[in-house]
Amino acid sequence: MYRTREKQMSIYDFLPPYHGELSGRNRWMLLADAIDWDQFEKSYSELFAPGGKAAISARIALGCRIIQLHYRVSDREVVSLVQESPYLQYFLGMESFTDQMPFSARTVARFRARIPDRAVRPAVKLLRSFR
To answer: What's the distance, Cα to Cα, between the start and end of the chain in Å?
Structure first.
């Protein structure tokens, strides 16, 4: 027997499973705590000349590369994944969940040019160990 589904519920009736709080046991939360973001920022900042437009943070740059290598996705898909996930936004150091991204797929491509895969693989390997 097949029963028809009810119509789509309203977004206002949907309750997220985390009730507005993120789980500290989530692998992205664990990895965020394990990475020495300050050390990476020191080496990343050396890639830029003084003056000019301010760059997007090193944490977002490295974080996007980790997400991209872990999921093996395109630059555009990195933006979509981050836009949809409060855990990935936390991982990137964003202060609150938003659907307005501070970077585009073109920016992710620039991150890829500056941060080679070999520099990201240890973090991806560590992330996989959190399963």
So the answer is: 38
